[in-house]
Amino acid sequence: MLIAVPSETHANEKRVALIPDSVKKLTKAGFDVHVQSGLGIRSGFTDEDYTAANASISTDRTALLGSGDIVLRVQKPTIEEVNQLKKGAIHVSYLDPYNENTLVDAMAERQISAISMEMIPRTTRAQKMDALSSQANLAGYVMVLLAVAKLDRILPMMMTPAGTLSPARVFVIGAGVAGLQAIATAKRLGARVEAFDTRPVVAEQVHSLGAKFVDIDLGEMSQTKDGYAVELTPEQLELQRLGMKDVISQSDIVITTAQLFGRPAPRIVTKDMVDVMQRGGVIVDMAVDSGGNVEGSVVDQTVDINGVSIIGVSNLPSEVSKHASQMYSANLFNLVSEFWDSKAKVFNLNLEDDILAGCVITHDGAIVNQTIKDLRN
Amino acid sequence: MLIAVPSETHANEKRVALIPDSVKKLTKAGFDVHVQSGLGIRSGFTDEDYTAANASISTDRTALLGSGDIVLRVQKPTIEEVNQLKKGAIHVSYLDPYNENTLVDAMAERQISAISMEMIPRTTRAQKMDALSSQANLAGYVMVLLAVAKLDRILPMMMTPAGTLSPARVFVIGAGVAGLQAIATAKRLGARVEAFDTRPVVAEQVHSLGAKFVDIDLGEMSQTKDGYAVELTPEQLELQRLGMKDVISQSDIVITTAQLFGRPAPRIVTKDMVDVMQRGGVIVDMAVDSGGNVEGSVVDQTVDINGVSIIGVSNLPSEVSKHASQMYSANLFNLVSEFWDSKAKVFNLNLEDDILAGCVITHDGAIVNQTIKDLRN
Amino acid sequence: MEVVFLTFILVLSVFLGFELISKVPATLHTPLMSGANAISGITLAGAFLSAGIGLENSQMAAYLGTVAVALATINVVGGYLVTDRMLAMFKSKKGGTK
Amino acid sequence: MEVVFLTFILVLSVFLGFELISKVPATLHTPLMSGANAISGITLAGAFLSAGIGLENSQMAAYLGTVAVALATINVVGGYLVTDRMLAMFKSKKGGTK
Amino acid sequence: MDIQLIANFSYILSAGLFIYGLKLLGSPATARRGNMFSAIGMLIAVVAGLTATGIVDFKLIILGMVVGALIGATAARMVAMTGMPELVALFNGSGGAASLLVGWGTLYSASGEPVSTFTAFTVILAILIGGMTFTGSLVAYGKLSEKISSAALVFAGQRFFNGLLLLALLASGVMLCLDPSPNSIWFWAVLGLSLLIGIMAVIPIGGADMPVVISLLNSYSGIAACAAGFAINNNILIVAGSLVGASGIILTNIMCKAMNRSLANVLFSGFGSVKQGKAIEGEVKPISVEDAYYILEAASNVCFVPGYGMAVAQAQHVVKELGEILQKNGAEVSYAIHPVAGRMPGHMNVLLAEADVPYEQLVEMDEINPRIENVDVAIVIGANDVVNPSAREDSNSPIYGMPIINVDQAQTVFVLKRSMASGFSGVDNPLFFNENTRMLFGDAKESISGVVSEFGS
Amino acid sequence: MDIQLIANFSYILSAGLFIYGLKLLGSPATARRGNMFSAIGMLIAVVAGLTATGIVDFKLIILGMVVGALIGATAARMVAMTGMPELVALFNGSGGAASLLVGWGTLYSASGEPVSTFTAFTVILAILIGGMTFTGSLVAYGKLSEKISSAALVFAGQRFFNGLLLLALLASGVMLCLDPSPNSIWFWAVLGLSLLIGIMAVIPIGGADMPVVISLLNSYSGIAACAAGFAINNNILIVAGSLVGASGIILTNIMCKAMNRSLANVLFSGFGSVKQGKAIEGEVKPISVEDAYYILEAASNVCFVPGYGMAVAQAQHVVKELGEILQKNGAEVSYAIHPVAGRMPGHMNVLLAEADVPYEQLVEMDEINPRIENVDVAIVIGANDVVNPSAREDSNSPIYGMPIINVDQAQTVFVLKRSMASGFSGVDNPLFFNENTRMLFGDAKESISGVVSEFGS
Ligand SMILES: NC(=O)c1ccc[n+]([C@@H]2O[C@H](COP(=O)([O-])OP(=O)(O)OC[C@H]3O[C@@H](n4cnc5c(N)ncnc54)[C@H](OP(=O)(O)O)[C@@H]3O)[C@@H](O)[C@H]2O)c1
Ligand SMILES: NC(=O)c1ccc[n+]([C@@H]2O[C@H](COP(=O)([O-])OP(=O)(O)OC[C@H]3O[C@@H](n4cnc5c(N)ncnc54)[C@H](OP(=O)(O)O)[C@@H]3O)[C@@H](O)[C@H]2O)c1
Ligand SMILES: NC(=O)c1ccc[n+]([C@@H]2O[C@H](COP(=O)([O-])OP(=O)(O)OC[C@H]3O[C@@H](n4cnc5c(N)ncnc54)[C@H](O)[C@@H]3O)[C@@H](O)[C@H]2O)c1
Ligand SMILES: NC(=O)c1ccc[n+]([C@@H]2O[C@H](COP(=O)([O-])OP(=O)(O)OC[C@H]3O[C@@H](n4cnc5c(N)ncnc54)[C@H](O)[C@@H]3O)[C@@H](O)[C@H]2O)c1
């Protein structure tokens, strides 16, 4: 079975879908792995590294795409690329199936079995394939370091002969995987960290990292069965804004990570909240890509509003591309090997399995994913 | 008595000599403080902040310079500015008296009492005025964060469902004040930290921060009575290079802080050492300003040598200008108030005092500092 | 022979006394002292002999014994009660803060 | 009356025994057992009476006593020696690693 | 002062030395000195004993002592280090036999008259306990030295038979009390039954449990000496005997705790194995902080398995401290990190790094699992899903197929959590009901702190 | 069985209850129950005591008991909480007096014949110790309730006078032994001298030390009961008395340690103050981990002052733990950070943050210094230059003028370091020789761990 890994074409994308280490494991398991020349160069892996891991290097991207029984990549393909794929191939990548209707349709048409990495269920068993988690984790770390680099003061407290430097205050909004890692990283650097999330269960998790949970009473709250946050009512959003304004006005760094899966991100930090922040403050908006949690944040830019910097980097894991690639690659490897029947040498695309039922979007010329089907109707 | 604080003119200099907080304390102690308009803008302090602290704002820089009985600033003045000073005024700033012969002569001629902040003795008593320490401390922190921002991997160890990310290795060369803070900061972020210094006493201090001291036997070593390192013989330097090459080849981040006071910095990391470092590695050279510890480092640039980035930022404390200003300002305040006779309302420039004996370079038209006098002969 | 036994008992009790009181928290110093003090009122059991000797046998001994009984009883009754009061207070204080 | 004293002594010694052995590290379990075992050879002091009763008084008692003396002596001498050997080893091991 | 009084005061002195010696024996630093004090006490007691009235003939005494001393000293010198426990068993047996004989000898009073009922009663006790100790120790010796099969020997009707023996003993005892003559048939019955009971008590116990049995028999030999003391009215026997008896019981108990067993379990496990096999599933066995201490103190390979609960309890600092204490105590210590432990990737790493646990001690799941059988105690600190064996065994479980840390295969598992509640994925955990699992309920930080303090005391 | 035997076995039972009760009294959770057990033991002993042979007349006994019970109960109920210590002193005094009277009464034996020398000896002991306890307790009561001046009362020649008293007592005692009659002049001499000695022993001790004195007198009253027991041959008196005597001594010792004093220092400090004033400068006073524990256990405001040595020892984690333990124990805990402590700015902050010490507990030098007098114990952990009082006092010192943390003004200072070596600036530190300084030598981490374990046990 042939696994094809084309280079990423997005300008911001430094990650790769497979690192040489995973290539070696896959070839050992019996796969042929073909990678495009120059694949890993932006994450520090040379073609030689891949050759050493028993991959074949291909310079013809179109041929490569057409040859793969399984195509692995990070970002979603273009429609043209879909049509270059071998019919019936398995294509694994981020896909954004909630919004990319034409792309999904094109894949169904081409009889591609499209696996969307976003749609891997958030269950304990599936966690080793869960790229959302693995990448969000790194994003949480990166966000703090971006903020710290921008800040004109240091994070930890220091009592020195030249006076006491008080610890910086960091406020993390949304304590999912990324938010928790942001909390941990800021704590490590010695900041006073506070966090807020609409899901009340998170309070304990925040405390478990030694940070403070900001209690804002929003009335009845809940989460979906998968552990995602439900959308807030406008009144609740308003309550939340008022409660947070207070905290923000005292914070040096604000980090927002509130995303609603498949839908535009909630607007949490509004202009008036930015205004109350002190000069030199820094805000990092993780959701800048899906609409932004922060009013005024711009994709891939750092905006200055009255002395407050708003950082909006869309591809945060790419900042630590080596580790991000390593983890994404491990997720892919785990996915492939979980369903690879090494005796029969087939990929066991069993749609009864709850992981595949969740993440396979198209198969055999049709959309098979229940959620996406429901969405279309 | 009038204290004048002109704006800094260096492009890289975001710090200010006095922050409003210190201004308030000085005016309370009976000083008139005049500051140049826009003084603190790059560190987040507005003219209003200064007015609120009872400073007078002056827009005429020349007049301001000429009016001050005491002139406080961060960077050394130009020769023209020396000639604009009031005769007999006290001028406190960095001065680099070892190298700035003409400037020192000009100050002597103008009968300025020039205090060099670099020359404050490194004694326990003087530590509250010791700007070298306070700024080096921040520089240590900044260096790590610069390196981390550049690195394509994360620092801490993480055992995750997508595999284990091994902790990054950080190697700090020169464990003075800046080096120690760099060690502490890297440790905080979860890196494995190793350090090296030519002064053997430092080993204990390195351990005291939980890092490992790399033992390289250089034969007989010592330090000057002030605790500075002595210059190494060429053989010792060679031994050191060999020993360190090994460590460097396994490190993700190398931070060099080895400075020899008043002389060009030792060249510690040579081209061949950079070559053995793995792709994606980062080197930060603190001594880039005084000749550089690292071969190939360029002032205020990040150079890429075979995938290894060498960062050479000359004014590191400026990156956290708010806190750097706060500390520098506290150093100045402590210096002024230590020798201010509040009853007699005079600045007690007693050259018998061991602190002043160390840091006053010129007075009453002559060079009075013993070290500088010795140097000239 | 009795002396031997008595000495044996003495030695053993002394050892026991040492072993029993090892690390007492400071808050318990006073109650423990007071509780031990109440035990020392055991003299009462000895005073009975004297007080009950019968006036006809020895008036002096009987009177001395009576006073001894009274004093020892004060020690016993008062001692236990006051210890208990202290400990009760202690308990409620702890309970209150917990 | 003797019984009373003896019981008193018994009770006190039992309490003491309990208090004495509180937290013994695992490495000391065997030596402690062996050391205590040696003490139980105190029967020796009792066996004297029997062994020394005089053949003329009771042959049987004397012979029984003699065997008892021998057995108890084994227990005492062997017990203390073997305990000491164990502890000596223990010590040097500790010293070695430290 | 008469010599009797001096002898008696010497006894008091030697009792003091025994007590002090025992105290010192409880701590490694002073143990050897303690043994010395105790030996000096013994010397004094022996010398005092020789002055007792009623001794008319020293020949036999000296003979006995010389023979005994020679045998004892030789045995103690010659034995290999590995043979010590057997030897202690033998010594113990001879102590028991001595008490038996002393009791027996008492029946032949110098005056030739029968002894009093009370004395007879104590004599019977001395014979019974001494005899049991004697034969029990011999069996224990045999099992330890593999001279006889070290397996637990059980047969059908064993309990019934033992019950009969006890009844018979009781009956003969009563009869002997009524007519306390050494020539009475009842005497021989008591003697024989006592010896038999000692054998019967020890054979159903497996060889691995012999140290506990010896410790218990040691306690018995003390009680036998005590009984003999009552019989001959000698208070040093009573004091020393009851000291040994009481401290032996305590020591036995401590040893059981260190083996994570109850005394009853040790004594009757042989019977148990006939009766009900090994399937005692479905029972939760809580453990106290103190008992956990005893087990940890004796462990030489300990593995911590932290989970989300450690984070909630913020127990990382105390965990690190316990780890250090265990290391100092000679144990190998590691921290096994499951990749999904906690609530974010690397959650455990963050916490353990904060507590400054050296990276070298962190091991991955794949690294610890192959050698988990060598782990004496796996301490699961607020982890649940990541150690749930149903992920391995139960194909209906929602987490089936997830690799876990196989703590259930360690020798002993402590699970520290506050309740029987399930973890993140809401699945029940059969680990908690395992034979070798002990639940240490309560907040993880408090529990660990508790264990740490136990180590201090 | 005869009633005497029953009574005696009851004594054994009540002795057991006393022992068990005392044991329970040592821990807060069980103390109240312990007192109850002890009271039940007393009840049993009293009932058993009433059955003693030789009691022919119960009237007086009942009279005495009713009066005593009324007074005791009323006093115990009425007293204000603050008055408890005084009351305990009074109770103690009456216990002592009772022993004295019992001893005295013994001299009038029922038979009218003079008692044996041994009995006379024990009677004298009972009178002496009982009498001392009585008057000593009264004086202590007076000092505590401020009925008499609570100051230490000393006069010239006091020691000489006390010596004379003792000699006189000895002489009268010997004479009384020779002729043990209650009518002898020697008897009155012994009685009077005993009472006088009690007074003389307590007056030179200051009011603040009275709790220790009462505890000591409590121990004495036990010994007095014990002596009375010997006099009248009653073993429950001996057991209970010696229990109280021994445990009272231990308790006294513990109390002294918690006050950072030695017993001798408490008893003779009054004399000391006459002899040599307060200047005991120049002496280094090391302290053991155990004694440090006693002081910390009783402290309610503790301030840690970390320095470079804490970093070297990597003691931050244990320090944090000790801090938490002290807080749980009810103490207020803070960490005073000197700006130049350590070897880089913020060195201590880095370490304490690593150990997760809450920022709220960190206080700056300027904040702690004004309230340092309220600190019961300042624990200097490997700091030296930053707590060197010569920076404040000695204008010739190279560090003169540097502000320091004025730990020398705290109630007690513990300095944890390995030796008497000087710090970074090489200056000698007079703090180490201060009256209120205790040096806890050794690696800081080990020392603190030691104290932590003491808290556990
Ligand atoms: N690592 C990740 O990225 C991530 C992210 C999201 C979810 N998850 C999921 O989280 C789970 C992690 O497994 P886990 O074993 O670490 O945790 P877990 O299965 O959630 O179990 C945690 C256990 O800790 C106990 N606990 C809570 N507070 C405690 C306290 N103060 N003291 C003592 N015990 C306490 C709880 O029991 P009591 O209530 O009885 O005390 C609970 O059973 C997995 O299912 C994983 O899939 C992981
Ligand atoms: N903060 C800064 O930026 C900086 C930078 C450079 C220099 N300094 C200077 O460093 C000094 C700091 O004062 P300091 O009070 O923190 O430290 P210090 O005066 O240097 O004293 C440290 C003390 O710690 C003890 N110590 C070392 N290792 C120990 C261990 N393992 N356990 C217990 N004690 C140990 C040493 O005594 P033993 O050897 O007897 O144990 C020593 O006296 C000042 O003089 C300051 O000027 C500060
Ligand atoms: N089973 C597993 O092993 C596993 C693995 C990974 C994640 N998960 C779970 O999946 C869930 C989603 O994680 P995620 O990080 O992808 O979440 P996400 O990226 O969807 O959202 C990030 C966080 O923002 C919060 N949020 C949403 N709207 C908000 C608002 N208006 N204000 C404040 N906060 C808001 C959410 O509650 C969430 O915590 C979590 O419960 C996580 O524990 C489980
Ligand atoms: N008394 C005080 O309170 C006080 C305050 C601040 C600093 N100090 C002391 O002053 C001294 C200097 O501190 P600094 O940070 O300004 O030093 P620095 O900037 O002069 O040098 C930095 C470090 O580089 C080291 N170094 C020099 N050449 C080297 C080489 N070839 N290889 C490796 N390392 C080399 C030096 O030993 C030094 O540790 C230190 O001893 C410090 O403790 C004392």
Descriptive overview:
The complex is a heterohexamer, with two copies of chain A (377 residues), two copies of chain C (98 residues) and two copies of chain E (457 residues). In chain A, 34% of the residues lie in helices and 18% in strands. Chain A has 377 residues and is an alpha/beta fold. Chain A is globular and about 65 Å long. Chain C is an all-alpha fold. Chain C is flat and about 50 Å long. The termini of chain C are far apart. Chain C contains four helices and no strands. Chain E folds into two domains: 79-271, no CATH class; 289-456, Rossmann fold. Helices cover 60% and strands 7% of the residues of chain E. Chain E is built from 17 helices and six strands. Chain E has helices spanning 3-25, 31-50, 59-78, 84-107, 117-144, 158-178, 185-202, 210-232, 235-258, 263-276, 289-298, 308-313, 316-328, 347-354, 365-368, 390-393, 444-456, and strands spanning 301-306, 332-337, 362-364, 377-381, 412-417, 437-441. In chain E, α5 (117-144) runs parallel beside α7 and α5 runs antiparallel to α8 (210-232). Chains C and F meet through α1, α2, α3 and α4 of C and α1, α2, α3, α4 and α8 of F. Bound molecules: NADP nicotinamide-adenine-dinucleotide phosphate (NAP) (2 copies) and nicotinamide-adenine-dinucleotide (2 copies). One NADP nicotinamide-adenine-dinucleotide phosphate sits between chains F (307-309, 312-313, 340-345, 347, 382-386, 416-419, 421, 423-425, 443-444) and B (124, 127, 133).
Q: Any key phrases for this structure?
A:
heterohexamer, A: 377 residues, alpha/beta, Rossmann fold, 2 domains, 8-stranded mixed beta sheet, 7-stranded mixed beta sheet, 19 strands, C: 98 residues, mainly alpha, 4 helices, 80% helix, disordered C terminus, binds NADP nicotinamide-adenine-dinucleotide phosphate, binds nicotinamide-adenine-dinucleotide
Summarize the structure.
Chain A has 377 residues and is α/β, with parallel strands linked by helices.
Number of helices of chain E: 17
Which ions, cofactors or small ligands are bound in this entry?
NADP nicotinamide-adenine-dinucleotide phosphate, nicotinamide-adenine-dinucleotide
Proportion in helices of chain E: 55-70%
Rg of chain E (C-alpha, Å): 27 Å
- The end-to-end span of chain E amounts to 45 Å
The largest sheet of chain E has its strands arranged as 3-2-1-4-5-6
